[in-house]
């Protein structure tokens, strides 16, 4: 008894140390968070960590706050996830709120429309069409897709074909003939140009209204001083053509690229509907280099952002997209079959072919074909400048020339020749 009474008192367990923001790998940060919040699953911990730019202490504080509800869980199905904004602290309107950003070598996955608008040059509208209209359009285009073909072109002296099939649709027979005889893509003319289908015609005014509304909203809320970008057209966006792509299975894809501006003009806007299987649409910002930079390719220096496109969604690629970003549809490890489309995804990209960008106004080189309009993306000194160059070399079996010419446009994106805007008849 005496020994029990005189035994030294056992030291109390030390207070748990607060989690810190050490420059540790993500795995270590997750262990730190898990030690303080053992009741929270790893997936949710990672979401909080991403939402607070990797700050362990801020993620921990957010988990302790009443903003977090243990019952909320992320679905494993593409296209359904709570917004990253739910994991941040404080008033949602606070300008000092932390925002998740993509980082070198990583991919930030976005599902919520407000997150997409905040971090990418796009906006997305889920459940865009009435369900019966979306299904009718999907069924119609699945039949059309049975006869789609892969586009063949030359890349670095090798003949390659696109890893998916596609078809091109215009509104009238006259436009079909014009596309086959006057317009050039990848240095050659299209042979498969189709008349717009009844369901595409039905949906077009709905897309037009939605895209124009999103354009104006973005100008007011995202662009400097609430004004359109330089070279962006002030006119309403009027879709008059559509490329329809079919991705059959998880492995069909399209690599990193910017869409051609030859007939769309500078600061083009594209409205894209996704139907059928949900897929990832990835974007990454173009980071130009100094002229004397000799480093290896750092195309992923700014990281990637993945936008998940479920069935019946409209993605608007805004005026800064083609000049300052690149996009792709990456191969998927697996996909969830769609009840109508099976393993197929149908993608409709509505485009506004501007009259002022008609091939009759396009420079031609000695190869006698219209040149392609491109924009400088690699070098800082000329970043964002437009130029015309020969495109005949993209045709298998043909060689192009070295034609190059800087392209000039006024503030509204109209081509300028010898100081005067190109004359044309109003549409």
TrEMBL record:
Residues 365-410 form the GRF-type domain. Residues 1-26, 67-108 are annotated as: Disordered. The keyword Glycosyltransferase does not apply. Residues 238-354 form the Fe2OG dioxygenase domain. One of its GO terms (molecular function) is dioxygenase activity. Residues 80-91 have a biased composition (Polar residues). Keywords: Metal-binding, Zinc, Zinc-finger. The keyword Zinc-finger applies. InterPro entries: AlkB-like, AlkB-like_sf, ALKBH3, Oxoglu/Fe-dep_dioxygenase_dom, Znf_GRF. GO terms for biological process: DNA alkylation repair. Transmembrane segments: none annotated. Residues 96-106 have a biased composition (Basic residues). This is GRF zinc finger domain containing protein. It comes from Metarhizium guizhouense (strain ARSEF 977).
């Amino acid at each position: 008894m005496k020994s029990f009474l005189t035994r030294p008192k056992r030291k109390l367990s030390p207070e748990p140390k607060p989690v810190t923001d050490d420059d540790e790998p993500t795995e270590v940060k997750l262990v730190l968070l898990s030690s303080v919040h053992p009741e929270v699953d790893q997936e949710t911990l990672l979401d909080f960590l991403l939402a607070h730019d990797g700050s362990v202490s801020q993620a921990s504080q957010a988990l302790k706050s009443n903003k977090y509800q243990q019952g909320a869980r992320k679905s494993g199905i593409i296209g359904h996830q709570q917004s990253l904004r739910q994991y941040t602290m404080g008033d949602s309107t606070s300008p000092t709120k932390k925002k998740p950003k993509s980082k070198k070598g990583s991919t930030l996955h976005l599902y919520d429309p407000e997150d997409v608008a905040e971090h990418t040059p796009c906006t997305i509208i889920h459940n865009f069409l009435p369900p019966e209209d979306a299904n009718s359009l999907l069924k119609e285009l699945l039949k059309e897709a049975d006869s789609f073909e892969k586009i063949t072109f030359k890349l670095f002296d090798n003949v390659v074909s696109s890893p998916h099939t596609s078809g091109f649709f215009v509104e009238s027979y006259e436009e079909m003939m014009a596309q086959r005889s006057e317009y050039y893509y990848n240095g050659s003319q299209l042979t498969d140009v189709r008349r717009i289908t009844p369901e595409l015609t039905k949906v077009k005014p709905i897309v037009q209204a939605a895209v124009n509304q999103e354009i104006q909203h973005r100008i007011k809320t995202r662009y400097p001083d609430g004004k359109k970008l330089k070279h962006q057209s002030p006119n309403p966006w009027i879709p008059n053509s559509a490329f329809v792509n079919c991705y059959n299975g998880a492995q069909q894809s399209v690599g990193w690229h910017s869409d051609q501006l030859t007939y769309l003009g500078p600061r083009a806007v594209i409205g894209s509907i996704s139907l059928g299987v949900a897929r990832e649409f990835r974007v990454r910002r173009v980071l130009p280099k100094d002229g004397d930079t000799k480093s290896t390719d750092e195309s992923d220096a700014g990281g990637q952002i993945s936008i998940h496109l479920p069935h019946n969604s409209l993605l608007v690629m805004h005026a800064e997209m083609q000049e300052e970003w690149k996009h792709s549809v990456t191969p998927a490890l697996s996909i969830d079959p769609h009840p109508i489309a099976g393993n197929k995804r149908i993608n409709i990209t509505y485009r506004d072919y501007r009259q002022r960008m008609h091939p009759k106004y396009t420079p031609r080189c000695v190869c006698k074909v219209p040149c392609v309009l491109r924009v400088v993306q690699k070098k800082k000194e000329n970043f964002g400048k437009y130029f015309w160059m020969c495109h005949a070399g993209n045709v298998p079996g043909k060689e192009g020339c070295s034609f190059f010419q800087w392209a000039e446009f006024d503030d509204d994106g109209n081509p300028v020749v010898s100081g005067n805007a190109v004359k044309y008849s109003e549409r």
